[in-house]
Amino acid sequence: MKIGITCYPVYGGSGVVATELGKALAARGHQIHFIAYSMPFRLGHVTENIYYHEVSVNTYPLFEYPPYSLALTSTMVDTVKYEKLDLLHVHYAVPHAASAVLARQILEKEGLCLPIVTTLHGTDITIVGQDPSFAPVVAYSINESDGVTAVSDYLRKETFDRFPIDNEIEVIPNFIDTERFHRLDKEHFRRALCPNGEKVLVHVSNFRPVKRATEVVEVFHRLKQEGLSVTLLLVGDGPDRAPAEHLARQLGVYGDIRFLGKQDPIEEILSIADVFLIPSGSESFGLAALEAMACGVPVVSSDIGGLPELNIDGETGFLCPLGDVDALTEATRRLVTDEALHARLAENARARAVDTFDLEHIIPHYEAYYEHVLERRMAQIGC
Fold first, then answer.
1. What pLDDT score does 61 carry?
2. For residue 42, what is the enclosing H or E element?
3. Angle 135-144/98-109 helices, nearest 10 degrees?
4. 267-273-277 Cα angle (round to 5)
5. pLDDT band with cut points at 50, 70 and 90 for residue 382
6. Torsions phi, psi of 184, nearest 5?
7. Is the pLDDT assigned to residue 129 strictly greater than 70?
8. By C-alpha distance, which of 122, 88, 139 is closest to 280?
9. Least CB-packed of 146, 148, 204, 268 within 10 Å?
10. What value does the CA radius of gyration of the chain take, rounded to a whole number of Å?
């Protein structure tokens, strides 16, 4: 198949999943066309069967805000016409699904068929989609899509609860390449960061307030106060990085924390981690946690959203009530002080990633869904 993929190309879960999906599909012989305003973060460079089409937005004095969604629609139309795409898969409802629906309408006027699959990732439903200025467009775009997927049962339910949806939603969970994400021998790296054998705590996110990175700093501070030998690696950038740094200075632990910014390949950092902390206030799946699990790192997370579908309490890590820093601290303490417990949960975490969420299990699900959508669309309009 020739498949167009549109996503946000920046550091974040939806863009990572979309990019990795495209790469995996290309490896299976499909021709993939990324349509975005910049090269997707995880793509790096185009390879065989992968193409990139940049969305250029011209600025005019008339526009206070350049109309990106319309420029995206035009690029979608051009790419479908000239590359003869079979299907367009858009990730994140706003504005990608709306732009795709408009592109399909334009192409239908020219006698061309463009089936659309929309994948919902989380904040496009739970946060952005709840804005009254977006909500009607989100609902319309979902209902007008030829196929809709969600990354967790939680997100599927939230979508039906929050919007007047009469379309079907297929749950296809996020996935990971467990051959890439596994524990590497990085003892030299670990010794450089932890010369005294400290246990390594890691948090990876885009540092939006919903990720609650300051709670990770608070947990680390409490463990240090108890005299535990630990160090903290904070990976990523975003609006809450500065508050996290400020809190670390206030608590006197800034010198024991490494703020590493955006990093790729992240698996090298995860390979020296002992505990992965993800206290998010909203998480429809938790891709960063899955990457950690694949590297044999137990996860301490909040118990919200799709995280309980991924992180099994007491088996792959621990679930804690949202905002409960005491529970987060206790769970982390147990993992850094009980070697037998840590070893068991680390092994379970890796096994769950491989057995349930490896790309070899999930990519065929997407391929079958594409075929289903294409057949249904052809039966509906005879294209």
1. 73
2. none
3. 50
4. 100
5. low
6. -95, 160
7. no
8. 122
9. 268
10. 22
Checking if the pLDDT of 169 tops 80, the result is yes
Which pTM value belongs to this model? 0.90
Domains (ranges, CATH) in the chain? 2-175+359-381 (3.40.50.2000), 187-357 (3.40.50.2000)
* Residue-wise DSSP of 276-328: EEE--S--SS-HHHHHHHHTT--EEEES-TTHHHHS-BTTTEEEE-TT-HHHH
CA separation for the pair 287, 310 (Å, rounded): 9
DSSP state for residue 358 in the 8-state scheme: B
Contact 223, 336 (CB under 8 A): yes
- CA 105 – CA 33 distance, rounded (Å): 20
Tell me how far apart the alpha carbons of residues 128 and 145 are, in angstroms, rounded to a whole number: 19
Burial of residue 382 (CB within 10 Å: 0-12, 13-18, 19+) is exposed
| Position 15 pLDDT exceeds 90 | no
Contact assessment for residue 328 and residue 219, using Cβ atoms and an 8 Å cutoff:
yes
Instruction: Say which amino acid occupies 87.
Output: L
pLDDT for 32 equals 97
Angle between helices 287-294 and 339-357 (to 10 degrees): 110
Sign of the Cα torsion 277, 281, 287, 293 reads: positive
CA distance 344 to 335: 10
Structure tokens at 313: 């309490």
Phi-psi region of 65 (alpha: psi -120 to 50; beta: other; left: phi over 0): beta
Q: Give the C-alpha distances (Å, rounded to integers) separating 373 from 146, 205, 370.
A: 6, 33, 5
Q: How far is CA 283 from the centre of its chain?
A: 9
